[in-house]
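Lab meeting tomorrow. Look over both lines:
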Amino acid sequence: MISLGYKKNITFYKTLFAIAIPIVLQQMISASLNLVDNVMIGQLGASNIAAVGLANQVFFLMTLILFGTYSGVSIYIAQYWGNRELGKIKHVMVIGITFGTLVSSLFFGFSFFNSNGILDLFSNDPLVISLGSKYLKIVSMSYILTALSFAYGFSSRSIGRAKLPMYASAISLILNTVLNYALIFGHFGFKAYGIEGAATATLIARIVELSIILFNIYSNSPVLAVKIKDFFDVKRATVKQVFKTAFPVILNETFWALGMTTYAFVYAHIGTDAMASVQISNIINSLFMVASFGLGNASSVMLGNLLGANQIDDAIEYNTRFLVLSALLGITIGILIILLAPLMIHTFFKLTPEVSRITINTMRVMALFMPFKFYSTIIIIGTFRSGGDTLFSMLLEVSCVWLIGVPLAFLGGFVLKYPVYFVVAMVSLEEVTKVILGTPRVISKKWAKRIVM
């Protein structure tokens, strides 16, 4: 029987809190200010909310590919750190930075030069396409900056220094909100730019965020301070070794993100109100999902450090604690969302009664599946990836999205023509399947491996 008592697990909780709390705070600030941003944009109407939601599907897809890239790279950084092989960390970072910059450059090119064409894939509402295109063209200029911020932020977390990306994100996001207020509505002497003002605020905030991270890394963290010469020191064997583990993670996040984008395509074709409802529900749920994100990233770092130090039994024991904690947190947060959904919708958003009803129902449906979502986050981001079991992780997640979630989305949205919250319920069955299929692999302990020598 696993014990979760604090006194019996002081080392576990101290390490967990040191890593997870800065990540949770960063994500909480991000989610809160994202909520505020959308409340501001929401004052311009449901079409503006839908436009920003669809335009950000491009950013969402890119960030998930970057997340996969840096998650895969961070497996090695965490294990090298645990094994005290500090000289090899920069070699791994160079691989991540190079690939991430290439990916973000491609996304920038497509988004900046073909913004109308991209939005036309998602919606047949001319107003939504026009508004979203204006937003996307400006915000795409922040994509390469985001890739670099991710690269250094993930690396900092992998060596247990999670406060730097938290501080940088907090400052930039607060700035983003202030600039949104000024540029969307025309305060502090600025002209009211509407949705284009929101995009400009995001671009400025990304510049500030990257500047803060780079200044601190190159002033205080020499182990992560990659220099030009480091790009020429990486051996081909290192690239092959890293990508053997990292590439399944990249594919995992890419195809998962494409699945989420496909869901957005279905929701948008159900109607603009449906898309706005899902967008609002996702924003509010992200406030609560920060606990899952913090726990998942902490588990990845802590398990990776233990496995890198060849403490296999300790890693297995820690993993069990993470899974129990994730299930308990998921149940608690799911209940909270079900109870608080009407209050949050009526307090923060100016919606019609019908859109409010749809949004509340959508939030409650998402809440019912929260325990499964929390649990699957730990096994995929923490358990499997920490030990390099990335191929199984990819097969599990991608198959559940594309063989269960996507077909059910099209069935519910286009064939049965269900309301959007019923479609969300059908799609969410993929989370249940992940838990059912992933748990035997966890129990087998095949994931608990040291991948650095």
Notes: Residues 7-444 form one domain. Residues 39 and 349 are 6 Å apart (CA to CA).
